[in-house]
Amino acid sequence: MGKDKEKDKRETPGEQELTPDSADENGKGNAAAEVNDAAEGSQETEGEQDGGSPEQDGGGQEAKAGKKDPKDARIEELQDRLMRQMAEFDNFRKRTEKEKSAMYEVGAREMVEKILPVLDNFERALAAVPEDEKGGSFAEGVEMIYKQFIKTLEDAGVETIEAVGEQFNPDLHNAVMHIDDDAFGENEISQELQRGYKYRGAVVRHSMVQVAN
Question: Are the C-beta atoms of 207 and 161 separated by less than 8 Å?
Answer without folding.
Answer: yes
